[in-house]
Structures are given as C-alpha cells and as structure tokens.
Amino acid sequence: MVKSTIKLLIAVFLCLLLASCNIVPDRHMPPSDMPIVPPEPKTKASESLHYISSNRKGSEDMSRLKTDSFVVELPLRANSKQRKIAMARFEAGRQIYNACLGEALRRRDQMLTSKMYRQAILMPHKTEEECKIRNQAFREVRIKYGLNGQYCLDKYATQTRNSWLGQHIDANTAEALATRAYRAVE
C-alpha cells in the first residue's frame, strides 16, 4: 500500500515537473520559433468518432482518450542478490506463461479437430433459433475441452506452480499469467 502510494506520488510529481517545463515528446516538438498552442476543443463529431473507434472488440476502456504520454525510465539500483531474485522470478513467470500457453494451444487444437466441433460448424445458422442451438453446441465443445472462460487455465497454472516455480511465483501471479495465456489463444 505504501509502495504504491509512493509510486503514485512520484509519477504525479514527474508529470507536474514535465508540464511546468513545457516538455513534450520529440515527435510533437514544434520548431523553436513556433509557440506551443494547446489543442483545439473537441467537437461533437470528433467525440462520437472517438466513441465509435474505441468501441471495437478488445478495447479495454472506451473513456480513455488518445493523449500524449510520457515514459520515464529510471535505472534500478539493485545489488547482486536482488538481481538474482528478480531474474529467478522473471524466469519462473516466463516458464509458467509458456506452459499455460502450450496447454491452451493443445486444448484448442484438440477441440478444433474433434468431431463435435466439426458438427457444430456444419449446423445451419440462418434463423435466430438455429443460431442459439449452434452457439450451445460450441459452448458444450469448449466446456468439454476446458476452454470455457478466462479462468479455465488457473487450475493448470496452480499445478505447474507445484515445483520449483512455486518458490518464486505466488498464486495470484500464476493465475494472471494463465489468464493472459488464455486471452492469447482465444
């Protein structure tokens, strides 16, 4: 809690410092003789255009506008012991993610080659009732092969943690990596 508050305060301080110095990213840097002009206010048309463009599948947050962003990279001062611990955690996370990704791909390949899936593909889907029946068939296939939601790989990730990986990765991180692997396959 305290660390996240400190990080937030540092981020706010850096943003205020950059704003007070009129620092903008290089790609938006005007010539030295041109004054920095604030952007024009949005019109109704541009707001609706943003809403339409951000309303696509995969858009995390429709209310977030595209604004200039600043990235501050600070060197991490760590001794050799801390570096060793961090590298072990990164390696454990990589291995859990790759294991979950491989499992998800294996399940997906089994599902795609199954007879149930091929039958579901061939089902008619012209009317609303036919679509409902077809969607139910696909849902049953996904349940059978363990691809029925973003938490379907959590049990596999927990089993994977029952090795040396469990010493370096906590359960919440393993589940987050499993969810990320599922979304990559989905």
Structural summary, described in words:
The structure is a single chain. α4 (115-122) runs antiparallel to α5 (128-144) and α6 packs across α7. The protein is 60% helix and 0% strand. It has seven helices and no strands. The model is unreliable at 21-35 and 43-59 (pLDDT under 50). The two termini are 34 Å apart. It has 186 residues and is mostly helical.
Short description:
The protein has 186 residues and is mainly α.
**End-to-end span in angstroms?**
34 Å
Provide the β-strand percentage band: under 5%
What is the overall shape? Answer: elongated
- Helix content estimate: 55-70%
Average pLDDT, rounded to a whole number, is 76
Number of helices: 7
The SSE order reads HHHHHHH
Helix and strand composition category: mainly alpha
Rounded Rg = 24 Å
Largest sheet: none
Q: Count all strands and give the number.
A: 0
SSE diagram, text form:
Blueprint: H1 2-20, H2 44-54, H3 80-112, H4 115-122, H5 128-144, H6 154-161, H7 171-185
Helix pairs in contact: 3-6, 3-7, 4-5, 6-7
